[in-house]
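Q: Structure for this?
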Amino acid sequence: MNGIHDMGGMHGMGPIRPEKNEPVFHEKWEGRIYALNRALGAWGKWNIDAGRHAIEQLPPADYLRMSYYEKWLVRNIGLLVKHGLVTQEEIETGKPAPSSRKLTPPLTVERVVAAAARRPNYSRPDTGAQARFKVGDRVRARKINPTGHTRLPRYVRGREGVVDRHHGIFVFPDTNAHFQGEQPQHLYSVRFRAQELWGESAAPRDAVYLDLWDSYLEHA
Amino acid sequence: MADDSTSMDRRGFFKRAATGAAAAAIPGDMHAQEHDHDHQVVPSDPALRTKALESLLVEKGLVDPAALDAIVDMYENKIGPRNGARVVAHAWVDPDYKKRLLADGGPAIAELGYTGAQGEHMVVVENTPKVHNLVVCTLCSCYPWPVLGLPPVWYKSAPYRSRAVIDPRGVLREFGTELADDVEIRVWDSTAEIRYLVLPERPAGTEKMTEEQLAALVTRDSMIGTAKVAALGGDKR
């Protein structure tokens, strides 16, 4: 979707404000919502792409106003209700429904360290997807405007680049976010010259690299 | 605080939170209409709402509060940019390791024990006198957690995400990093599950330093690419 989250190339967002000796969490609740997000993910009811898409669907004004972890809070409440782990009424009352039975969390304290060290894997090497491109190929990012989730930013659509690296076969977010299957595709790192993206005023040597799936691309 | 007022507060903001959740779950044009009626997607106190959400989820058996404590502890105390700094210092002193690291980042980083979420597929990009790398995620805030920990606020902010790709030299200048015109800047926009770590240049005058001393020089920002590593007394950000 052409949402506010797709920020690459925008102006007017103000100066960058690095903070000296920044804490990992500025307030306790930020750590709690971060941890809740991880613990709830262990139920396997949604996936990382659906989680990202939930944030993209926030109204643009709210997206810009809310802090990072506020977005995570709202995202998790929305996903919990949507996927039936919690009812709307439970959210409203703050109490479990009398009829609900107590469950056992999949992520217990004993499992945290092992679960954190595991490398979840989004690569699907054995699915037999065909690669249409190889390193060195000239490609163009397709001019498409999907209304659902996509990882093809607006600023490269219609622009030409060169395949710099072949990453392998990976879960396709555009379908996975909508629970339409992983539909794995080849994934490439594509190099776009800064001048191709931004015009002559960009530095002639500079480049931007994006990781793009096979169906985002066409031969140039 | 009396029980009554606690439960009232809790009910009150949960109701508002629920409105927010419902709004967030409504796609497309329905959303705009809904939004006119209820502008307040996020009530003022996320701390209170998070607390109430956590108690509900614990009561329902959906999360283990001790597991939450352990996750917070891990990211506050164990997983952070010191991990990445050790990777960088090791690559500086061990040419074979550096070769493995640049060829296939994930397994080489795992050799030092750093694995886990958001570090599944690692690519390490090397700075040289002629090439400077800068990492961003314009679409959200993707970041290599196992080697750098959780991202700083500025990395997740609209100013950085919007400008890193269109004006990397301006962004670097804001961080006090000035690059000559003949240096090529490569910006890596993390649009997939590949996570990027910059291998900064080893500063001159550090030939006699131990690996541990070298690791102490390596800053988080130098591994994102907004800064270089200073030999001594540099910014510790």
